[in-house]
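Continuing the series of single-chain predictions for the mutant panel. This is the parent chain; the variants come on the following pages.
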Amino acid sequence: QALAQVKTIDCRIYCEPLCRVRMAAPGASGGEVAAGGKKGTWNPKGAGPAINRRGSSKTTNNSAGFAIIKTEDSSAKPLANDGPPPAQPSWLNKQCMGLKEIFLQPLNVLLIFVPLGIISGKMEWGCLVTFLTNFVAIIPLAAVLGSSTEALAAHVGQMLGGLLNATFGNAVEMIVTINAIRAGLVSVVQQSLIGSILSNLLLVLGMAFLGAGLVTKESTFNAQGAGTNVSCLVLSSLALTLPTVFSYIPETTEEDGVMLSRIIALVMGFVYIAFLVFQLRTHADLFVGEENEEEEEADLAVSTAILMLFGTTVCVAYCSEFLVDSIDEVSEQYGLPCSFIGLILLPIVGNAAEHTTAVTAAYKGMMDLALGVAVGSSTQIALFVVPFSVIVGWIYDVPMTLNFQAFDTTVFLLSVFIASGILGDGVANWFEGLMLCSTYAIVAIITWFIPAAKEGRELMGIPGGGFTPTVFV
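Parent structure:
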C-alpha cells in the first residue's frame, strides 16, 4: 500500500495513481463528498474528512491552512522494494563469474600457444619454433598468474597480500631465473633482470606518460610515493655497482665476489621486507593516490585461486624451461645476439600484461595506478627478484653474483637518475614520456651491436655449452 501527501494551496490537485485525494467543498459536512465525489475538490481547515469508497481516510493540517486528506487504497500494489531481497548468487556462479573475468580478456587469445609451445619442446620441432611458441605462450600466462594472485590476496590481510603480490606477481621472472641458473646462463639471468627494470622504468613509464598526454596537457600524481620507490631503486643500483667495481680491484678473487654478493643480497632482502612494512603498514597514507576507488569483493574463493596459481605456475615452468633451453641454438644458428635476448626480449615475456595495464590506466587519467605498476614493479625486481636470484645460485652452487658487468650497471644507474629527475615534480607530460621511450630505444640499439665473447658452460662446471654471454674487460 502506498500513501501520498499533497502539500499545495492550489485547488487543482492531480492525484497519483496509487493515491486518491478528496477535499470537501466549503461548508460541506464531515461526511459529504464535494462535487459528487470528484477528484480535485478541496476542503478548508476544520471541514470534515472526505470519505474514500475503497479505504479509510486520514486528515492532517499543513501550514497553509488546508486539511490534507490521505487515503489508503487497498487495491494499490506494493512497491518493488517492499518485497524480499534479491537472491545472492551461489558459490558456483561466483566462481564462474570470477573465472570469466580473468580469462575473457583480449590478451588471453594467446593461450593457444601454451600447448603448442609444450608440444614443440617435447616433439623437438626446432629451436626457433620452440623459442617463439613458448615466448608467446608465457605472455598470457603472466597475465593469468597476476590476476590469480590478486584474487588470492583479496582474501588475506594487507600485509600478507603485499607479500603474495611481491612473490607471485614476479613469478614469471623467478621461474625463468631458476631455469636459467640451473642451465648455467648467469649472464642471461643478469641481463633479463636488468632488462625488466629498464622496461618498466623507461618503456612502460614513458608510454604511460605519452598515453596520458593524448588526453590532457599535464597529469599529476603522488610524488611522495614515487620518490620512495625511486630511493629504493637508487639503493639497488648502488648494490649492483659496488660489486662490479669490487671485481676490478687488484688481488680480488671470484670467490670473494660471490660471497660479497650473497651478503649484499641478504641485506637487500631485509630492506625490501622493511619497505613493505613502510608501504603497507606504517606510512600507507604516503602511497594513497587521488583515485579513491572502492575495493571490489573477491569473486574467486581461496581454493579456486590456489588451484589457478598452481596450474598457471606449472605451465609457466614448462614453457620457460623450453624457452631457456632453446636460447643457445637460436643465438648460434640465427645470429640473434644473446645480450639482446636477455636485456630486451625476455623482459617482454613477464611484463607484457603490466605494460597494457599501466598504459590503459594512464590514458584513463589514473596516473597513480600507472606509476604503481611501472615504478613499483621495478622496485620489486630490484629489491626482491635480484637477491632471490643470488640465493638460488647459492642453492644450486652456481656463481650467480651481483657483478652485472659494466654496461648493465651503467645503464641501470643512468636510467634511475633520469627517472628520478622526471618523477620529482609530481607532474607528467607527453614530452617526458618521449624522453623515457627514446632512452630505452637507445639502450636497445646499443644492445644489438654488443659483441658476444666465447664462454662455455664448462667454466661454471656445467656440462654442455656453446652459450656466449657478454663479457666486458
